[in-house]
Design goal:
Number of helices: 8
Number of strands: 8
Structural class: alpha/beta
Helix content: 25-40%
GO molecular function: hydrolase activity
CATH topology: Rossmann fold
Distance between the termini: 29 Å
CATH superfamily: Alpha/Beta hydrolase fold, catalytic domain
Oligomer: single chain
Protein name: Acetyl esterase/lipase
Keywords: Hydrolase
Strand order of the largest sheet: 1-2-4-3-5-6-7-8
InterPro entries: AB_hydrolase_3, AB_hydrolase_fold, GDXG_lipolytic_enzyme, Lipase_GDXG_HIS_AS
Family: Belongs to the 'GDXG' lipolytic enzyme family.
Radius of gyration: 17 Å
C-alpha cells in the first residue's frame, strides 16, 4: 500500500468542528457506488490520534472505503458522552453531503472503529437507529472495547482486567463515577434492545483480551435478528482482512443503495 501521499484534512460538525483526515478509496465497489466510512481510532478512550489511525485508514481505503478518520475528544478531560456526541455530529455532517467527498451520488454511509473506537462506532449505530437518522449502510467493529466489567475469559487469559491495566484505566476515565455504565450508548454490549441496527462486520483477534466481548456482541446482534458476520483472525493484517472488508462494504452498499446483485 502506497503511504507516501498525505491525507487531506477537514473539519466536521459545528464550528470549529473536529479535525479529520480523509483517505480516498483505492479499490472500486460496484459501478459508481461508494462506501463513506467514519473511522474512530483506538486508545482505551484516553489515547490515540490521527497519526495512530493512519495505518488502519490506509488499509480500509485499500479495501474500498472512502475513509474519514476523526480526532474525537478523549477522556478524562472529555468523559462520556463527549467523544460520542462529537462523533455523532461528525457523522451527521458526513450524511448531509456525502457526495462532496466521494464524487458519487450513490454513496452509502458506514461507521467503524477499533477498540475504544469500536465502542463509539457501535454506539453511533444505536443512536442512528434511535433518532431515525442518519441512515447507515453498515458498522465495522474491530476488536471493540465494550464491557467495563473486564471479566471475560480472554481478559483473564491476557492477564488484563486489574485496576492498573490500560482497559480498566480507560473505562474509569471514560465513565467516571460508573453511573454511566448502565447507559446503552456507553456500553453497547449491555444494551437490552439491539434490533433494527445496521449490518455489522465484527473482526477480532484470536487470543486478544477483547476477543470474547467482540464475539459476544456479534452473537447478541445475531440473536436480535441483525445481519452480522464475525471473524476471529490471527492478525488484523492486509492478507487477512482486505477481502472480507471489501465484500462487506460492497454488499452492504448494494443493499443500502438498492442496487441489483
Amino acid at each position: 500500500m502506497d503511504k507516501t501521499v498525505a491525507p487531506a484534512s477537514l473539519r466536521l460538525g459545528p464550528a470549529p468542528g473536529q479535525l479529520a483526515h480523509v483517505y480516498t478509496a483505492r479499490r472500486p465497489l460496484d459501478g459508481d457506488a461508494r462506501a463513506l466510512l467514519l473511522w474512530l481510532h483506538g486508545g482505551s478512550f484516553t489515547d490515540g490520534s490521527l497519526a495512530s489511525a493512519r495505518a488502519r485508514s490506509e488499509l480500509l481505503a485499500e479495501a474500498g472505503a472512502d475513509v474519514v478518520a476523526l480526532d474525537y475528544p478523549l477522556a478524562p478531560a472529555h468523559p462520556f458522552p463527549a467523544g460520542l456526541s462529537a462523533s455523532f455530529e461528525a457523522l451527521q455532517a458526513l450524511a448531509a453531503k456525502p457526495a462532496r467527498l466521494t464524487g458519487s451520488a450513490r454513496t452509502a454511509l458506514f461507521v467503524g472503529g477499533e477498540e475504544a473506537g469500536g465502542n463509539l462506532a457501535a454506539a453511533l449505530a444505536l443512536m442512528a437507529r434511535d433518532q431515525h437518522a442518519p441512515t447507515l449502510a453498515g458498522q465495522l467493529l474491530v476488536s471493540p472495547m465494550l464491557d467495563p466489567q473486564l471479566g471475560s475469559a480472554s481478559m483473564r487469559k491476557g492477564e488484563c482486567g486489574g485496576c492498573e491495566c490500560s482497559y480498566a484505566k480507560g473505562w474509569q476515565a471514560y465513565l467516571g463515577d460508573g453511573i454511566r455504565a448502565d447507559h446503552p450508548y456507553a456500553t453497547p454490549v449491555n444494551a437490552s434492545r439491539l434490533n433494527g441496527l445496521a449490518p455489522a462486520l465484527v473482526l477480532s483477534l484470536a487470543g486478544h483480551p477483547l476477543n470474547d466481548e467482540s464475539r459476544r456482541y456479534a452473537a447478541a446482534l445475531r440473536q436480535h435478528g441483525g445481519c452480522v458476520r464475525d471473524l476471529s483472525l490471527p492478525a488484523i493484517a492486509p492478507e487477512q482482512v482486505l477481502n472480507p472488508i471489501h465484500d462487506f462494504l460492497r454488499e452492504a452498499a448494494r443493499r443500502a443503495l438498492s442496487l441489483p446483485a
